[in-house]
Amino acid sequence: MAGKVKSLVLTGYGINSEVETAYANTLAGADAKIVHINDVIDGLVKVDDYHLLNFPGGFSYGDDLGSGKAFANKVLYAKTPTGPMIDHIQKFIDDGKLIIGICNGFQILVKMGLLPAFDKNYTGQTATVFYNDKGFRDQWVRLKVNTESQCVFTRGISRIDMPVRHGEGKFIPGSQEVLARLWKNGHVALQYADSAYQPTQQFPDNPNGSVDAIAGICDETGRVFGLMPHPEAFNHITNHPQYTRLREQASRKGIALKEEGDGIKVWRNAVEYIEANLL
Prior knowledge:
Blueprint: E1 6-11, H1 18-27, E2 31-36, H2 37-41, E3 52-55, H3 69-77, E4 79-80, E5 83-84, H4 85-94, E6 98-102, H5 104-112, E7 127-130, E8 137-145, E9 159-166, E10 170-173, H6 176-184, E11 188-193, E12 214-218, E13 224-227, H7 243-253, H8 264-277
Parallel strand pairs: 1-2, 1-3, 3-6, 6-13
Antiparallel strand pairs: 4-5, 7-10, 8-9, 8-11, 11-12, 12-13
Helix pairs in contact: 3-5
GO molecular function: ATP binding; hydrolase activity; phosphoribosylformylglycinamidine synthase activity
Protein name: Phosphoribosylformylglycinamidine synthase, glutamine amidotransferase domain
Organism: Methanocella arvoryzae (strain DSM 22066 / NBRC 105507 / MRE50)
């Protein structure tokens, strides 16, 4: 397809960050459309017509059965007029397109089996996202990027700040073998970090107790990415809790403080990849 990058932002059943997510896509140069999941299932909207699929944050189905589980099952077992929805998502990935899941979206991807998807098995769950060690957290976190990861969305980024707002964000691999494979094959993309941007298990820098401080992972292609923090919520520098300090520091150095929030880099990477490889 020629033209602008087309991004599909799913909503429905308790997803509540779709507007922020669509806005972040737009700032990055994509043509974003918010669509209810039922419109995809009913065949009114086709994922094949898009380059990027977004699973935003929220509390789908009130986190009943565990965060993301009910929504994951809905997608896994839904039948569209042209076949199972999961088959369309599998084709979407096979066609070289991109998927991102944020917070509840990350939980959905993990519980569907889309992440980490060892050996391109996109329906077998090998990890989970569980209750935080110390309850619901609404705060900002520092993140260290694994520059050895193949993740498309984090290219050119070494560290970044983002907010979190979740009660079930503790990433737990299914076994030590799964954890070892996550590291060996470059699936780990983000880790919670301390003030020196080094990975940490210490609360509150690690807000949920995730194993190995893992905050985000990708599949083996690097094109399917999920993370608990919210990059879409850092779309402008004024979102940052230390904005006034950053502004003063920039003023004293006589430099201009860029207005765009660093979270938009995630979608800029996606847009640039799509423009280079799919348009």
